[in-house]
């Protein structure tokens, strides 16, 4: 195998391009965006995701603009603690999360990918299909058809491309999403915590510090809403909504005051799952294969781990492709399946209209979660330190 196509130059696609070009493959990335898209609000990047960035040689660059996050605090409006997870309580080596703008990671990945003479980037290239025939896969885009030895599909959560090749792919919208924005972190909030406030299971707001600029911090704000309500939201509805947000969390009032409708981005979430995400000469990684709702803060880290592990397992020997992909998936499927199932279980506790979910969360899950054994499970889950299998050893090398 010599030449690889990557469909989707987002987080997983760019990381794959860097890693695979380092192994000597000629890589062509196709992205439907007309030009680079350093956009998005923010991620909580977990320790294994940081380790992948370190392997890629871009962690220091990202750290310059990221904020160390030492814990997650989720409270009800009345101040009752629902979750208080501190990375410092994790057993083993000291770790923390990173609050980081998507644009920071994206730009660092893009610069690194484009610095390789083996990586070719095609913008404005909405791939229509990939056709596998024998030992080649043809990528069809902009009325051209180019043959490759392997195609990595990394076209994100909403992409339906994979449906053609993986008939058993699950793609279910969650029904709830968020409005996102970035704003100045209110001075009353600690700059190293992911803060969350909930009222029943219907209302939730989160504030994640993502960048330090001078003495101030920028933060990503997310406001949970039903997807149907997001779709109906009009410019004229915005002042009332902003008022509701400011009353919900008065600390945020001053920082929000000057923001308008256009400063907010709508995001919808999907439950995606491909039971076996490789077939012939096509392999799917990242959100197209296993998107979840972002409550657990795992999406970016999972895409980076997919890319890392895939590059590790691919070999230039053509006849071992099927077994290489099988081995790759064996290192990824347990963690990804765990994250997906947990996300499906937890999301309604924070984003639904169910009274039962609220009672369960506040009166059972929260107190039980404080017991040391569950606290440890929650912490390991948050830090993406579960079912890493071979990947953790490789990352620590
Ligand atoms: C613009 C944007 C902003 C985002 N902002 C946030 C955020 O603020 N917070 C958060 O938690 N997550 C955000 N995400 C999602 C986050 O990037 C992913 O959850 C995670 O990083 C996994 O990434 P991925 O590589 O699977 O896909 P993504 O990073 O989503 O990348 C998918 C890429 O595929 C391209 N693409 C799609 N279809 C095609 C096609 N047919 N042909 C060619 N290219 C195609 C897209 O243009 C995109 O560049 C954002 C994603 C995007 C694309």
From TrEMBL:
Annotated Gene3D superfamilies: FAD/NAD(P)-binding domain (3.50.50.60)
Signal peptide range: none
SUPFAM superfamilies given in the database record: FAD/NAD(P)-binding domain
Pfam families assigned to the protein according to its UniProt record, in alphabetical order: FAD_binding_3
Domain of life: Bacteria
InterPro entries registered for this protein in UniProt: FAD-bd, FAD/NAD-bd_sf, FAD_aromatic-hydroxylase
Record domain FAD-binding: where: 5-316
PANTHER family in the record: OXIDOREDUCTASE-RELATED
Record-given protein name: NAD(P)/FAD-dependent oxidoreductase
Naturally occurring in which organism (per UniProt): Aliiglaciecola litoralis
Lineage: Bacteria, Pseudomonadati, Pseudomonadota, Gammaproteobacteria, Alteromonadales
């Amino acid at each position: 195998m010599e030449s690889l196509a990557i469909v989707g130059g987002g987080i997983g696609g760019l990381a794959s391009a860097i890693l695979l070009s380092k192994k000597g493959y000629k890589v062509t990335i196709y992205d439907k965006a007309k030009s680079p898209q350093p956009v998005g609000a923010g991620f909580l990047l977990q320790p294994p995701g940081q380790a992948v960035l370190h392997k890629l040689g871009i962690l220091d660059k990202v750290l310059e603009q990221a904020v160390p996050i030492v814990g997650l605090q989720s409270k009800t409006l009345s101040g009752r603690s629902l979750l208080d997870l501190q990375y410092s309580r994790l057993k083993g080596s000291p770790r923390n999360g990173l609050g980081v703008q998507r644009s920071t990671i994206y730009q660092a990945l893009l610069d690194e990918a484009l610095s390789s003479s083996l990586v070719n980037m095609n913008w404005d290239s909405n791939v229509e299909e990939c056709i596998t025939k024998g030992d080649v896969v043809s990528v069809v885009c902009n009325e051209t058809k180019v043959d490759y030895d392997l195609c990595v599909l990394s076209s994100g959560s909403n992409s339906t491309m994979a449906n053609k090749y993986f008939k058993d792919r699950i793609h279910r919208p969650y029904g709830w999403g968020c409005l996102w924005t970035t704003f100045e972190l209110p001075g009353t909030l600690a700059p190293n915590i992911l803060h969350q406030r909930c009222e029943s299971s219907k209302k939730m707001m989160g504030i994640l510090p993502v960048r330090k600029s001078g003495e101030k911090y920028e933060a990503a704000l997310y406001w949970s809403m039903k997807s149907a309500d997001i779709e109906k939201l009009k410019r004229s509805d915005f002042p009332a909504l902003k008022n509701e947000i400011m009353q919900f969390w008065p600390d945020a009032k001053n920082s929000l005051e000057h923001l308008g409708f256009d400063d907010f981005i709508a995001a919808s979430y999907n439950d995606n799952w491909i039971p076996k995400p490789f077939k012939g000469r096509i392999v799917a990684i990242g959100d197209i294969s296993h998107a979840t709702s972002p409550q657990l803060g795992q999406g970016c880290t999972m895409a980076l781990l997919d890319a890392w592990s895939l590059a590790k397992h691919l070999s230039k020997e053509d006849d071992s492709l099927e077994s290489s992909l099988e081995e790759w998936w064996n290192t990824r499927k347990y963690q990804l399946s765990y994250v997906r199932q947990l996300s499906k279980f937890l999301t309604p506790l924070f984003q639904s209209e169910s009274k039962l979910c609220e009672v369960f969360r506040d009166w059972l899950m929260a107190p039980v979660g404080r017991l040391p054994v569950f606290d440890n499970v929650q912490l390991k889950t948050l830090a993406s330190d579960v079912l890493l299998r071979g990947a953790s050893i490789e990352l620590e090398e």
